[in-house]
Structure formats: structure tokens, C-alpha cells
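Figure S7 source data.
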Amino acid sequence: MFDLPLWPPRASTTAGSVDALFIFLLTLCGFMALAIFTMIIVFAIRYRRRPGHQAEQIEGSNALEFTWTFIPLGIFLCIFVWGAYIYFQERTPPRGAAEVYTVAKQWMWKFQHVEGHREINELHVPVGRDVRMIMTSQDVIHSFYVPAFRIKQDVLPGRYTVAWFHATKAGTYHLFCAEYCGTMHSGMIGDVVVMEPAQYEAWLSGGAALGSLANTGQGIFQSLGCSTCHRFDTQGRGPNLVGVFGRPVLLEDGRTVIADENYIRESILIPAAKVVSGFKPIMPTFQGIVSEEQLNALVAYVKSLNPPPAGAAGTPNLKPPTSQPETNR
Ligand SMILES: [Cu+2]
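C-alpha cells for the predicted copper (II) ion complex:
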């Protein structure tokens, strides 16, 4: 039954649990529909109008009321808890996942790997690894949908949304846009190529070596003059960005926010929206100056400024850029 072409391949860790819930719902609904229709037919025949038979009025039955209230309630609660469990699993990217920045636009998918590779309408990922997609749109709403992974996440302009998966089987799987986004919406498709780790390493080391995404971001950071205000040695006119990512930030208005990707993004595009406590709102907006891809690179750079977790290799990227800053396009 599981090889029926009705089901797309199951190629992620969540696919099995999503299908189990779906099959359960389908079976339950099928059973109920069958029971109701059978009863309609049986009762229609059994209690049909016959001479000498008179219908009799029944005045309530607590036993019946309790049964048909609490049994369905119990079943629905089970479905709720089961669904919520899967939902939280699908919504919570594990720590240490590989990251891929994604920019959707009419009508294509653009991917930026943190290692520096870029792809269009094709996404290469290794098997057996958690992958976190950090996605945004440069025009309208799109939706990232990979049936084989059983994940679908809307991709919105002006902010990041996140999806994650852990591919379990090598192969090539469909990627669809699942939100109607204009004339060529149906053509906004691609392939997710899941590779064995060794093959993936080979793929990573091939192709144009652009330097890591954080490196690109570092170049942009210098060329746009971010570094004139944000210094790493002394306190400049702007806050020192080392170690900011993932930490709580106290704001001028007394609120505290966590510096996640959306916060960094907003800090660059709408600096006045959340002003860091102790600083003046003097940072200019970079809205319209940086492209979505450059913004991703800047975010990846700010993230790379964090000291690596204990035990991991590497140091923050504090040195001047080693590669040419990319041009705006
Ligand atoms: Cu689309």
C-alpha cells in the first residue's frame, strides 16, 4: 500500500509521521462516512412508512448524549495533540543545522549556501543532515513546497520565514511554488537533489569558489561603510556586532528582543524600528540599496561574528575581506 503512486516518495524524517496522521484521518473519515450512509439506508428501509405503524416520541437519553459528546471529544483531542506534536517538530529547526538562504521571485528560486555556492531552481543537499531554509521573497508571496519531504512554508516579501528538513534518501525531488504568484506560477518549479555525503562534498568543492557567504557579506559590510560605525576594537557610533546574534538586545524603549535573522534584517532595512538602548537612531536605512541576496550575505556575516560554540573550529571573521565585494544586481 505504501508504494502506491498516490503518495509522493517519503524522503525526510517527518514524512512518515505526517503520512501516519493523514492516513489515520482518512481512515477515520472514511469509516464515519460509511457508517452514516449505511445507517441512513438501513433506517430508511427499516422505519419506512407502513400501515399500522406509528412513530413514537423519545424524550432524551443522557447515556446517548454523553456517548456522542465524549467519544468524539476524546478522538478530536487525540488528533489535536498528535497534530500539534508533528507541527512543533516541523516548526522547530534543530540546532546546528546547515543553512541555505533562499530568495524567491517571479518566477524562480534562488539559493545561497553558506559555503558560497549559488543555485537557481536547483538545490543540492546532503542526505542525513538537518537543513534549515531561511527564506524571503523579493516581490510577492510564494510558497516553498517539497512533497517528498512533506514540508510547505510560505515565503513572504519583507521578512524571513524558516523551514527545515532532514533528507533520508538520495534522489531528485520536486520543488513547487504552492502560492499563486502570477502568470508563470505553474512554471516556478525546481529540483531538490539529495546526495550522499561524499558526493555532496565533491559537489561543494567543485564549481566556482566564491568564498563563503559570510565572506561576501564582509565585503559588502566594508563597501557600504557599515564598518565606519560598527567597529570591533572600540565602541564606535554603532554597537559592536560581535556576539550580537541570538542574544537578547535591550532597546531604547525598554523592550528586549532576541537578535534573530529577522531582527538583523530589520536593523539594516528599518533601523529606526528598534533602536538599541544607549544609541542614537543615526543609522541610515539600506532599503533599496542592498538586494535580497546582499542582505542575506550581511545577515550571514553578522551571524559569523559570533564566537563559535565550544569545541567547534574557526574564529569570527574580523579581518578585512579577502574577496571582492559583489556588485549590486
Ligand atoms: Cu511563486
